[in-house]
Amino acid sequence: WCGFLLVALVSPRMAGLRVDFGLLLEPLGFIKVLEWIFSIFAFATCGGFQGETTLLVSCKGVVNKTVTAVFAYPFRLNTVVFSAPDPKRCGGTWTDVYLVGNFSSSAQFFVTLAVLVFLYCIAALVVYVGYKHVYQQNSKFPLTDLAITVITAFLWLVSTFAWAKALADIKMSTGASIIPGIESCKAPGTTCRFASVTSMGTLNVSVVFGLLNMVLWGGNIWFVYKDINLHNQSNRIS
């Protein structure tokens, strides 16, 4: 499939370029455009996120000092440290405080899949628009397209649910529940109060786009299947 596409792009005369944008109005092409657009939103809403969680600390010589921990994609929270309340670090009772959890595997799996889908959709649209006749004449290409579509739909299912679970854990690891686990806040004369955390609405949206991509690719299986010989043969037998 990739070799055919490379030949088609490098030697359009050899491959017989026939540009037909009308296919974009048919279900096969129109869904591929939607998949391309939704993949952009999926990796943009997840990969572009940056936030911070804030505490108010009172200790020796310090009253309600704001300390922050800034986190972002790929959400290796265990490497994110809170700023110190003051240069003297509360008289030596304040030690480095890190967030808990490493959710990079789920986040990177989701974003990487979205980027690969984005690139594949571009390649597929080039073939659909410029080389549809070659695509239809050789049964290997529709079969390959069908296999990739089925696998991609499954990967969207796995990556979206994995990312949704990781997102729920990220919210727990950056919310008010982190205070009981901070040893420095248990020191005599030290109190910590949770102040705020950046809204994660865009990350919630990324999960929604993951589900939409899963539905799109699942539905697209039928339209790709219609283009393979097996479907045509079953129609002739009927």
From TrEMBL:
Q: Which family does it belong to?
A: Belongs to the synaptophysin/synaptobrevin family.
Note the Pfam families from the entry: MARVEL (PF01284)
Please report the record's description of how this protein sits within the membrane: Multi-pass membrane protein
Occurrences of domain MARVEL (ranges)? 23-229
Origin: domain of life: Eukaryota
Q: What organism, scientifically named, is this protein from? A: Aptenodytes patagonicus (King penguin)
Compartments, as annotated in UniProt: Membrane
Tell me which UniProt keywords the record has, alphabetically: Glycoprotein, Membrane, Transmembrane, Transmembrane helix
- This one is known as Synaptophysin-like protein 1
GO-annotated cellular components: synaptic vesicle membrane
According to the record, the segments passing through the membrane are 109-131, 143-164, 203-225
